[in-house]
Each structure stands twice: as structure tokens, then as C-alpha cells.
Amino acid sequence: MAQSTDESSSPGSGQDLRLESVSKKFGDFVAVDNLTLTVPQGSFFALLGPSGCGKTTTLRIVAGLEDPTLGRVYIGEDEITSLRPYKRPVNTVFQSYALFPHLTIFENVCFGLRRKGVKDYKDKTREMLDLVQLEPYATRKPAQLSGGQQQRVALARALINEPGVLLLDEPLGALDLKLRRQMQIELKRIQTEIDVTFVHVTHDQEEAMTMADTIAVMNHGVIEQMGAPSELYENPTTTFVANFLGQSNLIVVDVVDSSGQTVVLDCHGQKVGVDAARSHTAEGKGWLGVRPEKIFASAQGTVEHDDANLLTGGVVSDVSFVGVSTQYLVALPWGQEVMVFEQNTGHRASFKNGDAVDLAWSRQHAFLLDAGQDAHAGVVSGDDE
Amino acid sequence: MTQTTTSPPKASDDGEASKRRGWGWLLLVPGMLWLAIFFLFPTVQLFFTSLYDPSGSYEQGYALTWHVANYVDAIKDTWNLFGRSFMYAGISTFVCLLLGYPLAYAIAFKAGRWKNVMLVLVIAPFFTSFLLRTLSWRAILADQGPVTSFLQTIAILPDDGRLLATPVAVIAGLIYNFLPFMTLPLYASLDKVDYRLIEAAGDLYSSPFTGFRKVTFPLSLPGVVSGTLLTFIPACGDYINAELLGTPKQYMVGNRIQAAFLTEHNYPLAASLSIILMLIVVLMVIVYVRKSGTEKLV
Ligand SMILES: Nc1ncnc2c1ncn2[C@@H]1O[C@H](COP(=O)(O)OP(=O)(O)O)[C@@H](O)[C@H]1O
Ligand SMILES: [Mg+2]
């Protein structure tokens, strides 16, 4: 299901990073499966997927720390598939930071420049330490810094080399939530400032969506879908993407007519529709997907049917108040429960358990997926991971 | 390493340590007692013995006359033995490091599932007695033995050249006997080196050799220091190798001490030799650890 690239990015200027049909096997286990993608120069690209899906392996192939079993890697026109790591214009911020414990922060940061024989490495190192706000710590050893500071050293140590491509392997994974949010903004700022291609690996969908220009969602070594964050969120093409990025209600439907602009569906006897552009299956059964915040719940019989899709006969089965919004579970006549998020605008008293409601959403807000897939693929339990 | 811009790191200020007072020091007691009885007491005894009047004898007893001249006599006769001891020990330590480092490196990074087997092989010589193994080296290095004949055949040794009873044999014996003491600490500290750091060095434009020089080797320095100490110190006092593989021309201080103690029963001489040897070694160790400690040790 690897996709070709031209749909998400203009084949760009000179130094794009390109992977062509890259596969990596460990014994019989396929960690990366026929991956093809282009990361345009200067973009912030996120590789998003659950733990163990092959993100690190993909980065290591780009860094030259792992040889691909098949396929080629290019930067611009130059093939780097079998170039040794130290000859690649690529630097990595490692998942574990991998700071040199025997060297000071200053020595860690100037390590790459000194290997390259840059003369004025001292000035550059001071500038870089300034950029990541670590000047006062220059003479400390890594063990004497906090996690967030170590993370910035790792970033500085890679960035100072002005690499063509910077690889970041879950660089914020070890930080607590508040610091992580702060560093996300910081990283994004630095990336915009210095205009380096960032390939940022994460399993945190929120992180990917806030930071990246383009996200590739990866699962079992394969890219499920690639595109701008809003595109992936609004128009996912697989149940995995629909569930892994945010939450989705997936309701089983029969396709009645897929010939027109609007695909007509039968949902347990009620007629609904979805835009043809968001329909990813043409016949038979399908999963109709609607995001919880796109659904409008109203007391039974109070809403006009006009352009909106309407499902009647729901009963509120759970109400949880979370401050900015109220989250309902609504049981539909055939037993399935759907999530509905409602902003607490205060215009209306909230529903209570047992209230009869109708659910409405606009046709442009739903999507239709192939029913051959597991409706629970990519469901994220808990807040993290 | 030539970092000029940075001063040594400030120790992190911790008021913690002074607050932590408990019963932890009790753990020291058994070990301290043991050392007091079996190390401190004999050492003090040795010190007094070194100052006995040498005219006494084992049968008639000695008088403690603070006879400092014992030391002068000891040095006068044996300074060349000291020189030879430190030279032999130094050479064998150096060769042990050259042999042990690649071995330890291979076990730590390349051995894979053979790691444990290789470690057992490194200590396998300890399964038989030091004395027996050194004796069997006599056969290996004998004039008609395989090694000598082979070296003669390929003309590295002249036809009447020999190995046994030469400095080469003594040093080779020392190297053989102390190699595990070098290899094991080296292995222990190389095994602790995080492979990802070596990868990071590669990512930061270090060729494999530069990565080794700048990352792997500095991180293994604690092992280098303890390995060289564990080899050098016992090698300085060794007498078995010189006794079995050499002649009096290759004798080391240990041989002289042994003779003074066991054959001549000249206890004051033996004791003052021991004390001198001990002091010199301690001094060298302090200088060595200081030097490696401030500059390179983590
Ligand atoms: N050196 C290796 N040998 C065998 N299996 C590996 C190796 N490296 C990674 N894998 C396997 O490949 C899969 C993908 O790993 P990885 O790329 O680290 O995942 P991610 O970074 O997405 O969590 C995992 O199932 C992992 O167990
Ligand atoms: Mg990973």
C-alpha cells in the first residue's frame, strides 16, 4: 500500500530525500516493507506509527546505520544507499540521545565540526549553545543535565553540522507532557529558522499533527497514508489511520449507489450519503466514519433533514463532562454506541442518560472505508502509545 | 585529547552527602577487620623486621635496633634487580595490553553468542596451577622444543640461538601468566560501552578508527588502568617465571627476596627489600592513577 509521492509534495528542489522501494528484513521478519517516499527539501516530515512499526529502522537506513535489504536511498540526485554513515550529509538525534558521557556539553556539540575539520568551531559551538539556551552548561558533563537539557544537547550536536537532512527519533519521548509541548514549539521554531529538512519520528499523533507539514502514517512496516495533517484527519483512507489519528466512529453500511457526486448508503434502514471524494470503496459493505466532534446531537424530532445526514432513534447511554466539552455515548437502535463530543457553549442544557436523540452531521464530514478492514485497527488505548 | 577551551567540569554541588548518615558504615566492619588482621598487622611486622639488627639469626632471635643501614645494604646489592623487575614488568604489561585489548574488544562487540564461551576460555588457564603451567612452558621453549626449532627454521633465531633461559622466555612467561588479569577488566569496561555511542560517533563524521579513538577508547580507560595495574603490580614481585624460565642472569627482585627469606634466612634483608619494592610500586601507581585520572578518566 506504499504510495507514490507526487500527490503530497511537489517534486521539489535539489536536495529532496527519496526512498525507493526500500525493504528491510531481520531474518524472516519484515521490519520495513517496500517503502517509497519523498521528503521535500526544507520540509518538516513526520513518520507516525505505533511502537514496533519500523520507524527507527527506516531512520537508521537513511542514516546509514542499517543496510536496506532492497531498494535505494537518494538525497537529491546522489544515491547514498551504501554510503558509510560518516560520509552522509545526514545527522541524527537519537531516541536515547547517545550523548558522549566522557565529554563536556561543549565537546559533545562541537564533535561533528571537529571531525570535519571546521576551523572556527568554537564560535559556532557557542552560537549553537546559545540557540538552545545551554551556554551556562558548556563545561558540564551530560550526566549533570536534566532530560530536557540533554535533549537540547542532542539536538544542538546534530544541528550544528548543518546537515541536509536531520533525523529525529522520538526525541521528545522521554520528556514529561509540559516540557514536550514546549520543545515541540521550540523544534518547530528552529526548523523554520534554519530551513533544514526534518524527518521526525514519533508515535504521538498529536505531536505529529502540531509539528509536521506532511505526515506518513506507518503500520507494520508499510505506509498506510501520507499527506498534510488536516488531510489525514479529515479524509483517512484506512481504518488504521482513522483510529490512530484522533478518534472515529465506524458504522457498518451498505453501498447503494456510488455513481454520483454523493455516494448513497444504507445504514440499518436509514439512508445517508457521503462525498464521492471521501469514499474509498465502491460497492458492497463499508465502514462509514464520522469524527465525534462532527456529530450534532439534538432532541428527537427537532432537526430538519435537508442537507445533513441524520440517524434517528439514538438513546444517550453515557455522559461525561470534561470542561471544554461534554462527551456522550449514544446507543443506536442496532446496539452500536457512537461517541459525540459537544462544545460547552452553554446554549443548551446537556442531555442526560436515557434521553432520546437524533444524530446529524454534514455530508462533507464523513468518510467511507472498505469493510474488509478491522474496525479497531490502530485504536489507541490510553493517552500515550 | 586536546580540548583547550573547556575547564574541568564543576562537581555538582550536593549537600546531600553530608545529610546521609546511617548505619551503612557497619558494612565496612568485616572487611576492615580482615584487612587489619591479615594485612595491616603483617605489614607493620614486616616494617619492624626490616629494622632488626642483621647480626641476629633465625635460631637466636633478632634485636630491634632500628638498623636503617639494612635499606642501604639492600639497595646497594640489588638496584639492578629492581631495574630489571620494573623493565620486565613494564614490557609484559605493555604487551599484555596490546594482546588483551583486541581480545577484549572482540569478546565485547563481536563474539555474539560465543561471548560466554570465550570468557571461560580466557580464564581457563586458572583451572590448573600457575606453577605447573609455567613448568610446561619450559618444555615449549626448550632448546629442542617446537617453538625454538620453528623460529630457527624461519631464521628468526640463529641455529644455536635459544629461548629458554633468556629474558624473552621470562617476559613471555609473565605475559602468558598475567594476560587474563589484563583481559578481564578491559572486557568489563568495553562491554559497558554503549554501542549506540559508537554509532553516534559515526553519524557525526567519525570514521571507525576516529570513533574508536574519540569514544570507545576513552570510555574503556577505567579498564585500561585497572588492567595495567593488575598486571604490572604482581609482575613486579613475581619470581616464578624468572626462576623456571630464566637463569640467575634474569632474576628479578622477587627471586632475591625469596632467597633471602627461604634460603639465607636473612629476614632483615628480605623485609627491607619487600618494603622498598612496595613503596616504589605504590608511588608509581599513585603517579599513574593521578595522571590518567585527571586527564582522561571519567
Ligand atoms: N536488529 C534487529 N534485529 C531483529 N529485529 C529487529 C532489529 N531491529 C528492529 N527489529 C524489529 O523490527 C521491528 C521494527 O523496529 P523499529 O524500527 O525499532 O520500530 P519503531 O521504531 O517503530 O518502534 C520491531 O518489531 C523490532 O523488533
Ligand atoms: Mg523506535
Description:
The complex is a heterodimer of chains A (385) and B (298). Chain A contains 8 helices and 20 strands. With 385 residues, chain A is of the alpha+beta class. Residues 1-12 of chain A have low confidence and may be disordered. With 298 residues, chain B is mainly alpha-helical. Chain B has one domain (88-297): MetI-like (MetI-like fold, Orthogonal Bundle), CATH 1.10.3720. Chain B has helices at residues 16-19, 28-49, 69-110, 115-123, 130-141, 146-153, 167-192, 195-203, 208-237, 240-245, 253-263, 267-295. The A-B interface holds A 63-65, 84-86, 90-92, 94, 96, 98-102, 104, 106-107, 111-112, 115-116, 122, 138-141, 144, 157-158, 161 and B 3, 5-10, 12, 194, 196-197, 199-207, 210-211, 214-215, 218-219, 298. The complex binds adenosine-5'-diphosphate and magnesium ion. Adenosine-5'-diphosphate binds at residues 26, 29, 31, 49, 51-57 of chain A.
Q: Please identify, by name, the CATH architecture of chain B.
A: Orthogonal Bundle
Fraction in beta strands of chain B: under 5%
| Number of helical stretches of at least 4 residues of chain B | 12
Q: Greatest interface and its residue counts?
A: A-B, 32 and 27 residues
